[in-house]
Amino acid sequence: MNFYTKVLSSLVATPGLKLVVRFEVPAGEGTSDSKVEATKAALRDLGLSEAIDVG
Predict the structure, then answer these.
(1) Could you tell me the pTM of the whole model?
(2) Whether 11 contacts 17, CB under 8 Å
(3) What CA–CA distance (Å, rounded) separates 16 from 12?
């Protein structure tokens, strides 16, 4: 919420505003199918693309 309030709130009405977010999780035992599905569901709930590159 701080990021939106402090950075994006004054820009939200700007035509063509685009926000790109990228995150990486190290491969290994911590990356289970259930975590991938939970992440997709959370992105979907936020109205975001659930496209995840697992590889």
Answers:
(1) 0.64
(2) yes
(3) 10
